[in-house]
Amino acid sequence: MQNDEGRIVDLYLPRKCSATNRLIPAKEHGAVQMNIAQVDEEGRYSGEFFTVSLAGFIRQRGESDACLNRLLYEKGMLSFSK
Fold it and tell me: Radius of gyration over alpha carbons of the chain, in Å?
């Protein structure tokens, strides 16, 4: 819900898993959310970041590292070249 100024004023906004697009319930204790920083060529933090959420379902299956690698590759932050 938005107020007259256009700001979101809901008390709870559900998260979605970045790998599977499943909703993450409020009571799921296995889910994690990470902020991944953007860095420049010299390795210094540029002040920007993006958020990745992984559901407990993915973590329980042991696929969180592969999903995180795929998400970083799609953002252009990880390359698999030698």
Answer: 16
**What is the Cα 28 distance to its own chain's centre?**
16
* Each residue's pLDDT tens digit, 24-52: 998 999 999 999 999 888 989 999 999 99
DSSP collapsed to 3 states, the chain = CECCCCCECCCCCCEECCCCCCEECCCCCCCEEEEEEEECCCCCEEEEEEEEEECHHHHHCCCHHHHHHHHHHHHCCCCCCC
Asked if 48 and 35 touch (Cβ cutoff 8 Å), the reply is no
Question: Going by C-beta distance under 8 Å and a sequence separation of 6 or more, which residues neighbour residue 8?
Answer: 1, 2
